[in-house]
Amino acid sequence: MAKSMKKTRIVFLGAGNMAEALVRGVLRGRIVKPAEVVVTDVRSERLRHFRKKYKVCGEQDNRNAVRRANVVVLSVKPQQFGELLAEICTALPKRTLVLSIAAGIRTVRIEKALGKGTRVVRAMPNTPALVGAGIAGLCRGRWATDADMACAETILGAVGMTVRVREADMDAVTALSGSGPAYVFYFVEAMLEAARKLRMDAGTARKLIQETFRGAAHLLAETGEHPAVLRERVTSKGGTTAAALDRLRAHKVGDGIKAAVLAAHRRSKELSGM
Q1: 137 close to 169: Cβ distance less than 8 angstroms
Q2: Among residues 18, 59, 264, 271, which one has the fewest Cβ atoms lying within 10 Å of its Cβ?
């Protein structure tokens, strides 16, 4: 369970979906009070949304927002990082923990831009955080402390699970769990299209498919068995599952999935050089 961080002022630079999930999570978990949360964005309509729905402070001035922050969450797109870091570098207090949730941005880049001694924790959450079912990989920068990691875990833990990894593995985390939900949705889309061709009611098909994915994931987690073992248990020789798996192999679906993960990994590494 997430712990309270009373009187910890958290500033979210960027008001996208993931920032909103985290704001909702820390408020719902009573980790901080609305008065201690600040959200910034260039879009005034997003700030109005946050003020109205969550009763937090919203403003457009990033420099002013970070001046009294205990934690700053960098939640803008990777392409906007250079400009943002240059903007806040002279306003950010040295005592402030910087938590980055952007794909591909290495801690050393943030430390270099914000100055020696800046405490940075890098995280890669995923979109199931929007419903409190996310998982995030976290790693520490050069000057981050155990307390900083615990703080970051409390914030990310408000919307799901966390796991500590080496920074060298963060691009793999991005490729596996950061982008991973999209692979699942892509598979579901294909199954729904197959159901349409079978002239099945769309609502019934969706329920069958989503509960099958939910149940399979639960079975994998609860049994601890290798997925190959679970696959073999449901595959009878000459049966329907065997016929389906034969077609997946014929179309090299497994190779395509592996190629997709590796492509996401390459792109994450490319973003780190931007």
Answers
A1: yes
A2: 59
Mean pLDDT of 165-172: 95
Work out whether the CA dihedral 17, 18, 23, 24 comes out positive or negative.
positive
Distance between CA 7 and CA 158 in Å, rounded?
17
**Closest alpha carbon to 101 in 12, 164, 7:** 12
| Integer Cα distance of 247 and 205 in angstroms | 21
Neighbours of 148 (CB within 10 A): 19
Is pTM beyond 0.70? Reply is yes
Average pLDDT over the chain reads 94
% of the chain with per-residue pLDDT over 90 = 91
Q: Where are the alpha helices (DSSP H) in the chain?
A: 17-28, 44-54, 62-66, 81-88, 107-114, 146-157, 170-173, 180-197, 202-223, 227-233, 240-250, 253-271
